[in-house]
Design a protein that fits this description.
By secondary structure, the protein is an alpha+beta fold. It is built from 4 helices and 9 strands; from the N terminus they run βαββββααββββα. The chain has one domain. It is globular, with a radius of gyration of 17 Å.
Amino acid sequence: MRYAIQLIIPVLLLASFPASAADMIGLAECTTKVFTEINRTQKWSGKAPAGCKARVAVEKRPSGIFVIAWGVQPTDGGWVRAAFSAGMGYAEVAVKNELVRANRDILTRAGRIERCLNSIITVNDPLECRDRATKSYLAGEETGTENNRLIWLDDNGRHTVAEYSYGTTTATPTPPADLLSDQPLPPGMTIDLHLLRRQ
């Protein structure tokens, strides 16, 4: 059994994050490729798009489609996980011109979030972003610590959220729990965009 003691740490803390920048723009590009694939095929293939080294999950919510891309890298005595989540309304995914604009918006927002994350890592300043940090102490089948930070733009804009985590526990390739609200879609799942955008 896994036991965790979790501490919610308000906004500015965890200056001890590993000093390595996360490529949020690269992860965001993976999400935009998935949105483009769904526009073209009306399906989620279950595979990361060509040129995308991240793991990817897709979730269908009442407000639209959410794509999460993440990667785990081993470090000295532990691991670092970077993740990026983006949302798009069904009409945006269905209509080519709107899809192009939405994809551009996601990449622009990812660049701003990446600057915030780099500032957090180097000088513990979130700049224009909001963030939430947690630290968990695990005992049982897994032992060690996990540090997690969520970063987002506080402007009531499109859902674009980054997660930057590191720990000394065994790294798992599961989607970041804070970025998924339900079960991810299975591979080959049909997404009828034309029906969904009329609902």
